[in-house]
Amino acid sequence: GDSVTQTEGQVTVSESKSLIINCTYSATSIGYPNLFWYVRYPGEGLQLLLKVITAGQKGSSRGFEATYNKEATSFHLQKASVQESDSAVYYCALSGMGYKLTFGTGTSLLVDP
Amino acid sequence: DMKVTQMPRYLIKRMGENVLLECGQDMSHETMYWYRQDPGLGLQLIYISYDVDSNSEGDIPKGYRVSRKKREHFSLILDSAKTNQTSVYFCASSLSTGFSYEQYFGPGTRLTVL
Q1: 3-state secondary structure chain A
Q2: Among candidates B42, B48, B100 on the partner chain, residue whose Cβ is nearest the Cβ of A104
């Protein structure tokens, strides 16, 4: 079946430093899945951060960006300069055939002020 | 204001008791979902509802049932709760089941079964 791998369970970055959160995927139900990053702030539900539905394209939102790399089956999340308010849990996900979203295990980002 | 609400936010039950988790949305979305999340795992789909009285099992439906009598409400029921159902439960909704449609999530219900 489809799967999403996030290798880092927790990441700590100093404010104003750059960030990369790794995400790789395996899609067996569909050749070109849609890829998503969701974010969960403390006490809130998951909310969509960005999505990319076309291989080779880049999505961006709130200073974050991610590129759909079909050759590497990756969708890493990057930000050039993080802020303390970016502290949250970030989930990579893909949608295959039909309704299903497959999520990674999440990466908890802590930004040190 | 587009919102998915969940009640209660925290719940403690004893093994064998019945549990009712409620979810509401104000966006008139046809499709609603129930997920659970356990430490070290991604969100796992329990049930999906395509509209009123049109429900389908997800990946882990065993031990759960759902009810959707109004488009804006979707309930998750645990008959005779088990300790391994201790988890955080998320409800979500989307405009349709198309794979590019965004899912909107509630804040979660933390259920502890003792």
Answers
A1: CCEEECCCCEEEEECCCCEEECCEEECCCCCCCEEEEEEECCCCCEEEEEEECCCCCEEEECCEEEECECCCCECCEEECCCCHHHCEEEEEEEECCCCCEEECCCEEEEEEC
A2: B42
What is the DSSP secondary structure assignment for residue B102, as one 8-state letter? P
Q: What is the pLDDT of residues B8-60, one digit of tens each?
A: 999 999 999 999 999 999 999 999 999 999 988 889 999 999 999 999 999 99
B43 and A99 in contact by Cβ < 8 A?
Answer: no
Q: Please report how many Cα atoms fall inside a 13 Å half-sphere around the Cα of residue B39, on the Cβ side.
A: 3
> How far apart (Å, rounded) are the C-alpha atoms in residues B105 and B5?
8
Contact predicate A34/A48, CB 8 Å: no
Min Cα distance A103 → chain B (Å) is: 5
Measured between CA atoms, the residue of chain B closest to residue A53 is: B100
Query: How far is residue B45's CA from residue B57's CA, in Å, rounded to a whole number?
Result: 8
